[in-house]
Amino acid sequence: MKRLFSIFLCVALLFGTLGMLASCQSKTYEIAIVTDVGQLMDKGFNQGTYEGAKAYAEAHKIGYKYYQPANGSDATDNDRIAAMKQAINNGAKIIVAPGFLQATAMETVAKENPSVKFVFVDGWALGLDNVTAIVYKEQESGYLAGYAAVMEGYTKLGFTGGGGGGNPAVNRFGYGFIQGADAAAKEKGVSVEMKYSFKYGETFAASNELQTQIAGWYASGTEVVFSCGGSMFQSVKSAAGEYPDARIIGVDVDQSGESEKVITSAVKGLSASVERVLGQFYDGKWDSELADQAQNLGAAENSTGLPTDTWSLKNFTVDQYTELFNKIKNGEIVPVAEVPEDVTAGWSNVVVTLEQ
Amino acid sequence: MIFLIQKTLIFTIPLLIVALAGMYAERSGIINIALDGLMIFGAFVGALAALLLRKNPFFVDHNQLTFLLAMLVAAAAGALFSLLLSFSAIRLKADQTIGGTALNMLAPAIALLIIKVFFTKDMLEMERAADTSGTMKDFGFVILHDDLGPIGRIFFDKAYISTFLAAGLFVVLSIFIYKTKTGLRLRSCGEHPQAAASVGIDVIRMRYLGTTISGALAGLGGYIYIATVANGTASGAVAGMGFLALAIMIFGNWKPLGIALGALLFGFLKCLGVIYAQISIPIHGQDVYILRDLDLPMYFYNLIPYVAVLIVLAFTSGSSRAPKAEGIPYDKGAR
User: Fold this and answer.
1) Do A103 and A198 lie in a common domain?
2) B52 to chain A, minimum CA–CA distance in Å?
3) Are residues A290 and A154 in the same domain?
4) In this structure, are A257 and A280 located in the same domain?
5) Sign of the C-alpha dihedral, residues A356, B5, B6, B7?
6) Shortest Cα–Cα distance, B179 to chain A (Å)
7) pLDDT in single tens digits along all 356 residues of chain A
8) Pairing, β A192-197 against β A131-136
């Protein structure tokens, strides 16, 4: 027994050393990614940003590394500050930080380190010359997704968003989703029911509560659920697994590879825009093009939309999609970005039921 | 309504089996506060097993077999992990509460370390995998039968084999501890080990047996929990289910029937707390959403199951009767 115990301890020690070795490589990382809440490989927001940075770094042989603030989904500003400082100590010249929650931390660290550049994804200009912001017109992707779902023939939709209703990007996705569904319903002359919830997934995490709630939606007839938030997808997927006809709309990146239930995804061009900004930085265009600027990217920049190659829609054709997309691109249709206090009011063909 | 009952069953099963796990250890005289850690460990190893098995197309075709194997592996992992507790508590005569707490801290640490080092993730998700014909299949062990009528649907639609397996185990193990010779001996070691030893019962063996069964059940319960309730992902946490099971064991007065009742009650309230907004009662042909229209904050409903357990414990703890010798290291010389 003692022997078994000592073997166990040895194994534990071995794993410990392995873990240490993994984090102790002496190399400098010029590009650092400091993740938002949720995990790096969330198949969504964090991962999209990371992959953009990775693609640029690998193509140009630049060292890159990601930093996950301590305490995971409960990370505080202090944890984020610590992660950014650690990145700078490891030689980071540019820090890409996704998520509006990073604002306070970034402001603090950016002021202290004027020579290090910061890319604030989903953020805004902070009044500092070493910070640039990228924002997306999520309402456009949401609009397209809602429109496509109703045009496909679905009349009972659901939306579950992360961030507890306090995340501007998620709110824009959701509000755009209703607008698109309403527009399509008006066109087809049908009435659409939509369940709308920010109840679970405040930290974008999967949970048994979320899974049960969404299973309840599918049980009561909801056909498609727009799963708007990183790892929450796992819960929606598990709930959909119990209902043969249940379908999902993914978010941020193309999630069609995650489940056969995904009919399409409301994407935003995270990787592409991060890659582009990094290119501008390394081409020495920071001061002229990026410093203290906020880029607002949408259909016109090909940064929003639905990936038509992998969608499984049948009644709504790619041609119809392209036509609509171009209307948004030209500004003929402008999905409203400002989310009002009450999202249930003002629709002609959609009945929105809030669940909170 | 069918939905509510289905979900209640699914929430109840892991609690039931883990509370029974606690009962087995405590009836043999070992406080098993490590239920949560054992669940986490079992869940992690089970998920790992399922993930690796699904790399082979054969196991994607035979979903239920994969599930059974993963459950078996989870139970074995739980049993092995619990040896740490029994070794420290029985052989080294260490404080059982502290030993259990150590396991509770060790389990998530091991699980997360391995997930982070080998998968660079915070949690182990079940990905799509190819079956023998090359089609990608989603992960899921659910059995679908929606053509069975209301009663049949409650038990056999959206059901998991784990439900039947755990219910069967529960019955068998309840009979085992009350109606067999070994069961009687095991219980006697939790009441008065010296007296048991005086009639020739091997107390140490009985206590190892009780804790190992307990570990296996808790590991199994942990994997059932993540496979049926928590998205199939192992994340180094089981939402405190282990501690809840401990409370339910006390609520059930260390008896199987009481445990079953407690687990059902809690499972029902927990489920209600999540889907209260969707429950309607037809009045005059119209669906009335009573609970939703009360317009109370969701936290209120989420609290109900925990508050209910607290209240019931407060009222019943006067009459509760824990095994007399639990928590006391066995000392042959003591009288």
Assistant:
1) no
2) 18
3) no
4) no
5) positive
6) 32
7) 677 778 777 777 777 776 665 555 556 788 999 988 877 878 778 888 999 999 999 999 998 999 988 887 788 899 999 999 999 998 889 999 998 889 899 999 999 999 999 999 988 888 889 999 999 999 999 999 999 999 999 999 999 998 888 888 999 999 999 999 999 999 999 999 999 999 888 888 888 889 999 999 998 899 999 999 888 998 999 999 889 899 999 998 899 888 889 999 999 988 889 988 999 999 988 888 888 888 899 998 888 999 999 999 999 999 999 999 999 999 999 999 999 988 888 899 999 988 87
8) unpaired
Q: Residue A19 domain-assigned?
A: no
ipTM of the prediction:
0.86
The sign of the CA dihedral A66, A71, A73, A78 is: negative
Closest approach of chain A CAs to the CA of B158, in angstroms?
6
Chain B nearest C-alpha distance from A234 (Å): 6
pLDDT digits (tens, 9 = 90+) for B48-91: 999 999 999 999 888 899 999 999 999 999 999 999 999 999 99
Interface of A with B (CB under 8 A): 1, 4-5, 8, 12, 15-16, 18-19, 22, 39-41, 68, 72, 199, 206-209, 211-213, 215-217, 219-220, 231, 234-235, 237-238, 241-242, 244, 257-261, 355-356
* Residue at A93 is within a domain: yes
Residue A315 three-state SS: coil
* Contact residues, B window 18-37, toward A, CB-based 8 Å cutoff: none
Taking the C-alpha atoms of residue B186 and residue A87, their distance in angstroms, rounded to an integer, is 57
- Scanning chain B, the segments in alpha helix (DSSP H) are 2-27, 35-53, 57-61, 63-86, 96-119, 149-156, 161-179, 181-191, 193-198, 203-224, 241-251, 256-275, 290-293, 298-316
Q: What is the CATH number assigned to the segment(s) B2-319?
A: 1.10.3470
pLDDT in tens, B160-179: 999 999 999 999 999 999 99
Per-residue tokens: A129: 């010359």
Q: Using H for helix, E for strand and C for coil, what is the string for A260-308?
A: CCEEEEEEECHHHHHHHHHHHHHCCCHHHHHCCCEEEECHHHCCEECCC
Write the pLDDT tens digit of every residue in B82-91: 999 999 999 9
The answer to whether residues A189 and A71 belong to one domain is no
Chain A's closest residue to B8, CA to CA, is A212
Based on the domain organization, do A251 and A102 belong to the same domain? no
Among chain B residues, CA nearest to A259: B138
Looking at CA atoms only, how far is residue A131 from chain B in angstroms? 29
CATH code at A115?
3.40.50.2300
Chain A residues closer than 8 Å to B121 by CB:
39-41
The verdict on A145 and A182 lying in the same domain is yes
Q: Which of A122-136, B151-165, B232-246, B292-306 has the lowest mean pLDDT?
A: B292-306
Number of domains in chain A: 2
Which residue carries 């402008």 as its tokens? A334
Residue A244 inside a domain? The answer is yes
What number of C-beta contacts closer than 8 Å exist between A and B?
Answer: 99
Domain annotation covers residue A282: yes
B180 interface with A at CB cutoff 8 Å: no
- Nearest Cβ partner of B136 from A5, A217, A260? A260
What residues form DSSP beta bridges with A33?
A: A66, A96
Structure-model confidence comparison of residues B224 and A166, the more confident one: B224
Q: Which of B91, B120, B275 sits opposite A216 (nearest CB)?
A: B275
- Quote the pTM value: 0.86
- Identify whether residues A314 and A186 lie together within a single domain: yes
Tokens representing A160? 């579950």
> Do residues A187 and A198 share a domain?
yes
Domain extent at residue A105: 27-136+271-299
Report residue A213: phi and psi, to 5°.
-60, -50
